[in-house]
Hints:
The chain has 16 helices and 18 strands. It is α/β, with parallel strands linked by helices. The strands form 5 sheets. A 5-stranded parallel β-sheet has the order 3-9-8-6-7, with helices on one face. Strands 4-5-18-14-15 form a 5-stranded mixed β-sheet, sandwiched between helices. The protein is globular, with a radius of gyration of 24 Å. 43% of the residues are buried. The active site is at 191 (proton donor). It is an enzyme of class 1 (oxidoreductase). Keywords: 4Fe-4S, Iron, Iron-sulfur, Isoprene biosynthesis, Metal-binding, Oxidoreductase. (2E)-4-hydroxy-3-methylbut-2-enyl diphosphate binds at residues 102, 189, 259, 327-329, 397.
Amino acid sequence: MDASERRPNQVPVYWGVVQPLIFRKGLDLKDAVKGELARDYHSDVVERIRTSDFRYDQGRLTIHLAREFGFCYGVDRAVDYAYQARKRFADQRVFLTGEIIHNPHVNEKLRTAGIRFLSDPGEPSPGLGAGDVVIIPAFGVTVHELARLQGLGCTLVDTTCGSVLNVWKNVNRYAREGFTAVIHGKVKHEETQATASQALKTSGGRYLVVLDRVEAGHVCQYIRGGGEREAFMARFGKAVSAGFDPDRDLAHIGVANQTTMLMSESLEIADMLRQAMVDRYGEDALAERYRAFDTICSATQERQDAVISLLDDEAVDLMLVVGGYNSSNTCNLARICANRVPTYHIADVDRLVSPECIRHRPVPPSDQPLAKLPETETRGWLPLGGAVRVGLTAGASTPNNIIGMVVERLTGFTAEPSVSDAAR
């Protein structure tokens, strides 16, 4: 019997050593936390819009909601497991290794519920031990961190997304077959760090992380004609495995990606790298030097496709994209929209300050590198007279209640004054 399927009181013992429990299929408390989850994240407004062909009309305001938006299956599952863990282990300390998802509202709800974050200053105090429960977030954790937590004897609740596990499987395969994993992702992102660590499970495993087309272009240039090793390492030194040698480790490559990256860019980078290998070694050698498997997350792709369809089918004055500023999939939704219409990426409903003022994170143009731009304030963002058509979407870590509050705030902003109001 797998440890993930044991009941909590069935602690496995091998050769006299107690093995830590790992729950990977929930804790049999789904029905018990259903009401709490609905209370914290459900929105009647969003459900009404969904059943009205994803359209909302109120006075001069029309909102077109993307047909795929908000919580994906992996995020919904991770949050569900966290609530189950808090209820099941009510008398024990329960920790998260870091943010369960990149949404400040959800993470604050979990803190309020008594779940502590190992990433917070001063945590854990005192140190972790066998009596503690640690939740692994949807992004997963590195191989080293998992081994450390198991070594401490902590009970683990693993919510790693299935799409992430699929990427890990392929990175593991690359390493076993002697291929360097070239990962399209953000080198400091928890998911990419966890994915990269999978290559190191095999002796001699190697990885390289590229952020975008620009960085991929430098790698392709080196593949085609070599170059100055020192210059290459100066650019990528913090994005490669220890002992990385571009002359040796770019001779056989396998492509993977952080699941929340822009789908079109991941595919383009894979094509760029493939062509570079063909140019260097020839088409006949490609099968023994290049690997690529589809590791695009279906939920990420569906949300990106849905917002493109919305912009193709509906004329809107502006797009609102709701989600955490450190949410990769939300940032990529904003980049797609910003190529077509004025777009405002807001972290929460409180960024809608007034009909005249919005606080948002600027969206860098698609031909510029991704950058963590500071939040800014824009005035005159919402048409103050006549019909207003707003496109709305949300990242995979944004709950429906936040989306619903955005709709209600917009309704208030665009309401026509009543006769009594005008008389005052």
